[in-house]
C-alpha cells in the first residue's frame, strides 16, 4: 500500500525537477523551432500573397493595355481604310475622266474618219457615175 512519508516529497521534487529540466532542454527549443517555423510560414504566405497581388495587377494592367492597343489599332485601321477608300474614289474618278476623254477623242477621230471616208466616197461616186453614164450613153459627158 501507499504510505505517505518523506520519499513522497522527494518523488514530487524529482518529478518537478524532471519537468523543469525537460522544459529547458527539450520543450523550449521545440516550441522555439515551431514558433520560428510558424513565423517563416506566415512571412512566406505574406510574400506569396504580395506576389499574387502583383501578378493580378500586372495581368489586369496588361489586359487593359492590350484592349487599349486593340482599340487604337482598330481606330487606325478604320482611318487607313477610310483614307484608302477616299484615294480609291479619287483614282476611279481620274480613271473615269481619262477614259471619257479617250472615248471622246476616239469618237472625234471616228467622226473625222467617217467624214473623210464620205468625202472620198463622194468623189469616187461622182467619178464612177460619170464613167457609168459615159458607158451607158456611149459618149462623153
Give an overview of the whole structure.
This protein has 141 residues and is mainly alpha-helical. Helices cover 94% and strands 0% of the residues. The chain has a domain at 21-110. It has one helix at residues 6-137. The protein is rod-shaped, with a radius of gyration of 58 Å.
Short description:
The protein has one helix at 6-137. Helix content is 94%, strand content 0%.
How would you summarize the topology of this molecule?
Layout: H1 6-137
The counted number of beta strands is 0
The SSE string, one letter per element, is H
Rounded radius of gyration (Å): 58 Å
Portion of residues in helices? Answer: over 70%
State the main characteristics:
mainly alpha; rod-shaped; 94% helix; 141 residues
Amino acid at each position: 500500500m501507499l504510505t505517505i512519508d518523506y520519499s513522497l516529497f522527494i518523488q514530487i521534487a524529482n518529478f518537478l525537477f524532471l519537468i523543469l529540466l525537460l522544459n529547458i532542454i527539450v520543450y523550449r527549443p521545440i516550441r522555439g523551432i515551431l514558433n520560428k517555423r510558424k513565423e517563416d510560414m506566415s512571412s512566406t504566405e505574406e510574400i506569396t500573397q504580395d506576389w499574387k497581388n502583383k501578378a493580378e495587377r500586372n495581368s489586369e494592367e496588361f489586359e487593359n493595355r492590350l484592349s487599349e492597343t486593340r482599340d487604337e489599332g482598330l481606330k487606325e485601321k478604320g482611318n487607313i481604310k477610310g483614307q484608302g477608300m477616299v484615294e480609291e474614289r479619287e483614282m476611279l474618278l481620274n480613271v473615269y475622266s481619262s477614259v471619257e476623254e479617250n472615248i471622246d477623242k476616239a469618237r472625234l477621230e471616228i467622226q473625222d474618219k467617217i467624214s473623210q471616208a464620205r468625202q472620198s466616197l463622194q468623189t469616187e461616186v461622182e467619178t464612177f457615175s460619170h464613167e457609168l453614164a459615159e458607158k451607158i450613153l456611149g459618149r462623153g459627158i
